[in-house]
């Protein structure tokens, strides 16, 4: 991708909503060169694509924006993974990969981890509550989700920071333009994470435990010997699960707190009426969706929104655009925690809907309960303007400086 086109992509990613609005008003679908894809922006069209996985394959769901340089790819060759994961699989293969994750993130499993999540949330706030100032993304939002999903998977808390860091570096490597030496350093961090995950795969195969890592290993290996190919598949699976489990929730915490504090009367309402917190979570997820969308590729000739597409056409299915569609949401560009919630697409829909959506919602609920109770005077720091990260998959503030 040339520098001019990447500059336009950067601009689109920091604020995609004007592009979405134009696409919703246009006849048919709009081709967006920056995304190299047809933009699916209306609620009804997004839902139709998600209802038809046989016509719109997920094989390219995680297509990189940037292809790493050969030296970085050589470093990645020394790691594990690189196999299809639940987000990029279709049909029976997708069902096989998804089943243990759905079991591992069941309502009972989520309920069981909530006391730990509440304890960690309180401890993180304890770390800055007396300071009068915090950068929330690094001190809280970037820590809690990794600790919680790490607990469910079965990671030792000592390994969580390296795994979280490796997830961030994987996203940077594939979705941000980096100089070659920085690409190599990022690839080394990713490979270090993969070797940690491979160690867990081997340990859980040898000595099973009551955790999601064991469940995944059992689903792939059964009772037989653990092969090198299975280790690659399991590391890819775990890497995808962990990244989805912490980066998305980290982003959602950041955008939720940002929009509440940009609307101080709504923050004050939440502090005085904490029973509104679940509705605030839904409104924040709808209003500025952390996962803006995923790519799909047509499996044959197909017509969507009156636009005829050949086999192999790439679409960007924009959940964030659908969530601002006035045909489903009144005054969709307004952030309003008092609105009657309508069904949104922040966690997708259909066979690929997010199996961790309840876990994310619960962490948002715990976060808002903790912050409204302990820091009702919370406000955005006047001297630190907020810049959104240039990404379509984990949209959030780059940093969030708060005072009280």
Annotate the secondary structure layout.
Blueprint: H1 3-14, H2 17-25, E1 30-32, E2 37-40, H3 43-51, E3 56-57, H4 70-76, H5 91-104, H6 107-126, E4 133-135, H7 136-141, H8 144-153, H9 160-175, H10 180-206, H11 212-221, H12 228-262, H13 264-272, H14 277-287, E5 293-298, E6 302-304, E7 307-309, E8 314-318, H15 319-322, H16 357-374, E9 379-380, E10 401-403
Parallel strand pairs: 2-8
Antiparallel strand pairs: 1-2, 3-5, 4-10, 5-8, 6-7, 9-10
From the alpha-carbon coordinates, what is the Rg to the nearest angstrom?
A: 21 Å
Q: What letter string, H or E per element, gives the SSE order?
A: HHEEHEHHHEHHHHHHHHEEEEHHEE
| Through-space gap between termini | 43 Å
Annotation field: number of helices: 16
Main sheet: strand order: 1-2-8-5-3
What do you see in this structure?
By secondary structure, this protein is of the alpha+beta class. It has one domain (3-403): Cytochrome p450, CATH 1.10.630.10. Helix content is 54%, strand content 8%. It has 16 helices and ten strands. The strands form three sheets. The protein has a five-stranded mixed β-sheet, with helices on both faces. A three-stranded antiparallel β-sheet has the order 4-10-9. The protein has a two-stranded antiparallel ribbon with strand order 6-7. A hairpin with a 2-residue loop joins β6 (302-304) and β7 (307-309). α6 runs parallel beside α16, α10 (180-206) packs across α11 and α11 packs antiparallel against α12. The longest helix has 35 residues, at 228-262. The mean pLDDT is 94.
């Amino acid at each position: 991708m040339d520098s001019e086109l990447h500059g336009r992509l950067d601009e689109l990613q920091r604020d995609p909503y004007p592009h979405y609005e134009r696409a919703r008003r246009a006849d048919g679908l709009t081709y967006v060169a920056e995304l190299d894809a047809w933009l699916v922006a209306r609620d009804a069209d997004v839902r139709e694509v998600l209802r038809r996985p046989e016509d719109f394959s997920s094989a390219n769901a995680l297509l990189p924006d940037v292809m790493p340089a050969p030296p970085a790819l050589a470093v990645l060759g020394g790691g594990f993974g690189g196999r299809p994961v639940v987000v990029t699989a279709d049909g029976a293969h997708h069902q096989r990969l998804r089943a243990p994750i759905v079991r591992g993130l069941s309502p009972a499993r989520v309920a069981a981890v909530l006391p730990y999540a509440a304890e960690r949330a309180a401890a993180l706030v304890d770390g800055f509550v007396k300071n009068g100032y915090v950068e929330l993304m690094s001190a809280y939002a970037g820590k809690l989700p990794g600790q919680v999903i790490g607990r469910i998977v079965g990671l030792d808390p000592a390994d969580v920071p390296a795994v979280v860091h490796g997830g961030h570096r994987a996203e940077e490597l594939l979705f941000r333009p980096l100089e070659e030496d920085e690409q190599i350093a990022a690839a080394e961090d990713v490979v270090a994470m993969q070797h940690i995950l491979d160690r867990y795969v081997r340990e859980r195969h040898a000595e099973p435990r009551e955790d999601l890592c064991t469940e995944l290993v059992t689903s792939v290996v059964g009772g037989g010997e653990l092969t090198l190919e299975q280790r690659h598949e399991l590391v890819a699976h775990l890497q995808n699960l962990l990244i989805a489990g912490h980066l998305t929730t980290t982003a959602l915490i950041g955008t939720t707190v940002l929009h509440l504090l940009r609307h101080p009367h709504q923050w004050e309402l939440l502090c005085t009426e904490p029973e509104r917190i679940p509705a605030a979570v839904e409104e924040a997820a709808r209003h500025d969706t952390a996962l803006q969308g995923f790519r799909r590729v047509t499996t044959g000739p197909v017509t969507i929104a009156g636009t005829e597409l050949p086999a192999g056409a790439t679409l960007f299915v924009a959940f964030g655009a659908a969530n601002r569609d006035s045909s489903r949401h009144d005054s969709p560009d307004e952030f309003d925690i008092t609105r009657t919630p309508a069904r949104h697409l922040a966690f997708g829909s259909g066979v690929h809907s997010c199996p961790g959506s309840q876990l994310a919602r619960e962490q948002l609920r715990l976060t808002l309960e903790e912050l409204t109770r302990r820091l009702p005077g919370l406000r955005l720091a006047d001297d630190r303007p907020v810049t959104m990260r240039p990404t379509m998959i984990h949209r959030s503030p780059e940093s969030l400086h708060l005072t009280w």
